[in-house]
Design a protein that fits this description.
single chain, Peroxisomal Thiolase, Chain A, domain 1, ten-stranded mixed beta sheet
């Protein structure tokens, strides 16, 4: 093992539900809100950073290498490098993993890492026929050529292509993410009622966590230019109940499917950033810490059952450290779909799955429901794909510290058939646990 890697602190924006139009903030603006709040509370300047690493899946055309844009706007100065990573739903976790690797290897001491996404601003594109027609029009040199091209324009040329819908589908197996959730629900016999009950629990747990102040010091206010502000995740339903959830139509497999908009994660805009530091940097600069990243792992699974990725990544990670699910005080398992979380729980507990899919003699064991997403998850707060992995680790580190410490796990499924997991330990100082 290399150098120890500490979480100094972190911050995120409220997660804002997409509401049939572009949201108030671009992905870069969201990252700046979180980054300014985080760096503003540190005894260091942005120019003291060694690197900026951000995850983002759908950056705007004018946000190429969004990490560099955000770094410069935060005031790192031109000498601090930055790069952007993309591992679909785990892009924010990949940014943290990359920062962890660089610090462990001694190539960096202080890294700002996390993720950002403005899903509501995903580009709407021309289809291929329209692109071809426009190219032909640009090649037309005479008025007669342009007239001949113009009369070839058809209504079908104007049919838009929604890049968000394409991004939420797997081109290899030809399935949407929701359809893969239907597959794992069927595999483990998870019915509609169980999914709706889990979704309701997610909303209730977020509401209860707010009342206890569990998100204080984590979620920063986001101000729009006109003075409007957003202080908390706005997709949380205070009035949700099982009857309302039961009335929702299947979203992906009509009329008999069980996955609905109510028991799925929300299309959301948001950003989450963390400041990671080496033990040397913590000691030299007198930095407080809230946690330590111990390790991470990735795993590949069948794309049509991508929701089971957390089981595989977690099994690899825990096995390497001779740990079991019962050793974990807190687990953040991203709620892409209620069906997917419940399927992971069933797979964790299944001797057959452990033997045939994980190559283990016995199952890792289902996670204690009281320790699994105890403050709710993406079904209630949303899932901005580039930011979610970082949000999971940020909330995990803060929650572990508030609740007496211990080991925690952040894990999530990844579109395309992967899983990611990160092991975090709560610490009060860099000397603890040495």
């Amino acid at each position: 093992m290399g150098a120890r890697v500490f979480i100094v602190d972190g911050a995120r924006t409220p997660f804002l539900k997409a509401r049939n139009g572009p949201g108030p903030f671009s992905a870069a603006e969201l990252a700046l809100i979180a980054g300014r709040a985080l760096m503003g509370g540190q005894p260091i300047r942005a120019s003291d950073l060694d690197e900026v690493i951000l995850g983002c899946v759908i950056p705007a055309a004018d946000e190429a290498n969004i990490a560099r844009i955000v770094g410069l706007r935060l005031g790192t100065g031109v000498a601090v490098p930055a790069f952007t990573v993309q591992r679909n739903c785990a892009s924010g976790l990949q940014a943290l993993a990359s920062a962890f690797d660089h610090i462990q290897a001694g190539r960096a001491q202080l890294v700002l890492a996390g993720g950002t996404e403005a899903m509501s601003r995903a580009p709407i594109q021309w289809n291929r026929a329209m692109s071809g027609w426009l190219a032909q029009m640009l090649r037309a040199k005479t008025p007669l050529d342009r007239a001949r091209t113009l009369i070839q324009l058809r209504p079908a040329h104007l049919r838009p292509v929604f890049s968000l819908l394409l991004g939420l589908s797997d081109p290899v197996v030809g399935l949407s993410m929701g359809q893969t959730a239907e597959i794992v629900a069927a595999r483990f016999g998870i019915d509609r009622h169980a999914q709706d009950a889990y979704a309701l629990q997610s909303h209730q747990r977020v509401v209860q966590a707010r009342e206890r102040g569990e998100f204080d010091g984590e979620v920063e206010i986001a101000f729009e230019r006109g003075g409007r502000y957003h202080a908390e995740d706005d997709g949380v339903r205070l009035d949700s109940d099982l009857d309302k959830l039961a009335r929702l139509a299947p979203a992906f497999e009509r009329p008999f499917g069980s996955v609905t908009s109510g028991n799925s994660s929300q299309i959301t805009d948001g950003a989450a950033l963390l400041l990671l530091a080496s033990e040397e940097a913590v000691a030299r600069r007198g930095l407080p810490v809230i946690g330590e990243i111990l390790d991470y792992d990735w795993a590949g699974v069948e794309p049509a059952q991508m929701g089971l990725g957390p089981v595989h990544a977690t099994a690899r990670l825990l096995g390497r450290h001779n740990l079991h699910t019962g050793d974990l005080a807190h687990v953040e398992l991203n709620e892409a779909f209620a069906a997917q979380v419940l399927a992971c729980q069933a797979a964790f507990a299944s001797p057959e799955y452990a033997r045939e899919e994980l190559g283990l003699d016995g199952p890792p064991g289902a996670i204690d429901p009281a320790r699994l997403n105890p403050d709710g998850g993406a079904i209630a707060v949303g899932h901005p794909v580039g930011a979610t992995g970082a949000r999971l680790v940020l909330h995990l580190a803060k929650a572990l510290r508030r609740r007496g410490g211990g080991l925690g796990l952040a894990t999530l499924c990844i579109g395309g058939g992967q899983g990611g997991a990160m092991l975090v330990r709560s610490v009060e100082s860099a000397r603890e646990g040495a």
